[in-house]
Design a protein that fits this description.
With 445 residues, the chain is α/β, with parallel strands linked by helices. 20% of the residues lie in helices and 31% in strands. It is built from 9 helices and 25 strands. The strands form 6 sheets. Strands 1, 2, 3, 4, 7, 8, 9 and 10 form an 8-stranded mixed sheet that branches. A 4-stranded mixed sheet has the order 13-17-16-15. A hairpin with a 3-residue loop joins strand 11 and strand 12. Helix 2 packs across helix 8, helix 5 crosses helix 8 and helix 8 packs across helix 9. The longest helix has 18 residues, at 227-244. The structure holds zinc ion. The site of zinc ion (ZN) has 3 residues, from loops.
């Protein structure tokens, strides 16, 4: 009976029964007013060049004049699964769509964003296969490929400003081509003449935009290129677009694939869960066992907000959704660790811990990462317990139920309990009764 019931609840056409995760919207406002535009990526989850580009744009650009609204990931869910679309292709749902489609609500929300009165132009980013060429050259370079081109649906629409789509896309392509890494990367303009020639594209986001009076441009980087180069061309495309529409900006790094790679793989990136736990994003051991996650997120970890400098982080349950599933820590479409969650009530009453680090006493905030040479000593905090994960207590205190008022030495740590692959990072957890009061990480040199 259960199975039959499931059949009716979930349309089997769709892989998953869970509601799509809402996308997030960010505004970058210039000090000076000017034109207002919307930049979007991640409508298809397997296009990391696009959402890694908007992720860096949000972190490392400042708008001086005008404003930019950014939606880095239109389909977080598909991104976590590195799938074009776990509910089908989201970019083919803008013309007509059944109300029973799981993404019906998502489409309404995207349309609302595009139609907002203040938005004057839309820039929509993708990673496409091969390299677009007007004439067939070979399998990789031909009119059916989408990589490295800028797309308009027609030459112009009858709105002011920016209805002159062709002139603007010419500027975008010209700007992108000032930075070519290899001559065959050359960008071309691809006018799809959607209204007369392209039934499929009539269902797309940009066509919805232009038929509703919003100038729209799509920008594609080739999936043939490594991530750093896709992001590089996408950022060139964004810059060309912003210049063409008169939005002024500043970028605080050298635009090269090498710098981009170092920003994407920034070893200092961390994430914070519920202001109680901060862990690094890189070099984590996998799986991480019995890791505290707020009880309120049980069965819904994909909607748990993580604080981070990065805009494309999230937790995602493994496989089909069950409350006790393993959880993936995702950075875009990359899996940084698998976590076996321990769902606990998070108690927020503890703010600081009094610790002696290598003989020096200090107050340490819950949720910090603390560097230690050889040893540390946690001073007792009434009403709480301390638990140093992986600490083997010396014989004389082996029966002590917890680790306040104990000297913890590096040599007493069991490496298999380390949080990271270098076996330097250890968890120190605090509890009040059955509730979790937060964590600090100790990083041994
Ligand atoms: Zn795409």
């Amino acid at each position: 009976m259960g199975r039959v019931f499931l059949f009716f609840v979930c349309n089997l056409h769709f892989l998953f029964c869970i509601a799509p995760i809402d996308f997030k919207v960010y505004d970058m406002q210039g000090a000076q007013s000017g034109h207002n535009v919307l930049i979007m990526s991640g409508i298809q989850g397997d296009e990391p060049g696009a959402y890694n580009a908007t992720n860096l744009f949000l972190q490392y650009y400042t708008i001086k004049k005008g404003s930019v609204r950014v939606i880095p990931v239109l389909s977080p869910h598909s991104m976590y699964y590195n799938s074009r679309g776990i509910y089908g292709d989201l970019n083919r749902k803008f013309a007509t769509l059944s109300k029973r489609d799981p993404e019906f609500g998502v489409i309404q929300k995207i349309k609302e964003q595009i139609l907002k009165a203040e938005i004057q132009a839309v820039f929509h980013m993708h990673d496409g296969s091969g390299f677009y060429r007007e004439q067939y050259i070979n399998e990789t370079f031909n009119p059916k490929r989408w990589g490295n081109c800028s797309i308009i649906d027609q030459d112009s629409i009858n709105v002011e400003p920016f209805g002159n789509l062709k002139e603007i896309v010419e500027q975008i392509v010209a700007h992108t081509n000032t930075g070519l890494l290899k001559s065959f990367h050359k960008y071309h303009i691809h006018n799809t003449h959607t209204a007369i020639k392209d039934k499929q594209m009539q269902k797309s986001l940009t066509y919805f935009a232009i038929t509703n009076g919003k100038p729209a441009f799509a920008h594609e980087a080739s999936k043939t290129l490594p991530l750093r180069e896709r992001v590089y061309y996408h950022l060139l495309g964004i810059e060309g677009f912003l210049q063409a529409v008169g939005v002024e900006f500043e970028r605080n790094f050298d635009l090269t694939p090498k710098t981009i790679a170092s920003l994407i793989n920034d070893k200092n990136l961390t994430l914070t869960i519920d202001s109680s736990i901060t862990i690094p994003l890189f070099h984590l051991k996998s799986p991480i066992n019995f890791f505290p996650i707020p009880l309120s997120a049980k069965g819904d970890v994909q909607n748990l907000a993580l604080e981070s400098k990065s805009y494309i982080l999230g937790l995602s349950p493994e496989g089909d959704f069950k409350a006790d599933s393993m959880v993936f820590l995702k950075y875009g479409n990359r899996t940084m660790a698998r976590i076996k969650p321990l769902y606990l009530e998070f108690d927020k009453s503890l703010e600081h811990i009094d610790i002696q680090v290598d003989g020096k006493r200090q107050e340490v905030k819950i949720g910090s990462i603390l560097k230690v040479k050889d040893n540390f000593y946690l001073h007792n905090k009434d009403g709480y317990r301390a638990n140093v994960i992986g600490f083997i207590k010396p014989n004389d205190i082996a029966k002590k139920p917890q680790e306040f008022d104990v000297l913890v030495q590096k040599k007493a740590m069991l490496k298999k309990f380390a949080l990271d692959i270098n076996a330097k990072l250890y968890r120190v957890e605090f509890y009040k009764g059955n509730a979790f009061s937060g964590m600090i990480l100790v990083e041994f040199e």
